[in-house]
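Changelog-adjacent note: as of this version, every example in the card shows the full chain rather than a window. The one below runs 182 residues end to end.
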Amino acid sequence: MQLDPLYIQVLPRLTNTGSNEHAEGALPLTSIEIGFRHFQVAEGIGYDINLTNTSEAILLSGTATANLSASCDRCLESTEISLTGEIQGYYLFEPLEEPGDDKLETYEMVDSSGRIDIAPPLLAAIVYELPPVTLCRADCEGLISEAPLGAPVAESAKVDPATDGINPESPFAALKDYPFDE
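Full-length structure tokens:
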């Protein structure tokens, strides 16, 4: 996934300490891929942000919103997800003088033409809010192969007590009588 930059011109409009500006719009993104997970983005990632000059940097704060569609992790049906995340960014005017500075904050730079790229924090705000498991509904039972849960089991699916349900042709059948407790 290639993330195109989304620049906002901050200089010369925000040259005075304490000056601020409000902006809103959308990052035109069509999909998000995280590992094996794939999400379609309906109308890009919307943003509503405030930019403030702190004398040494531009502080970015606000919210990002996105409507996504993905496959349910249990039944594989398509599902819709609406997310809202908090955006934060800190864009220095000049690089830090001490490269070994152990500040915990991360930062970017205002570029030489007075712009900042807000695409990475927008994407990060939405990715941070992604659910660990995507479900179409909270009570999704998942893929059901032959019969709904609680239905009677077909005769062919019942376990043969003589084999304890182990297929004698399975490579693991030899382990059936192995004493694992010793």
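Structural remarks: The chain has one helix and nine strands.
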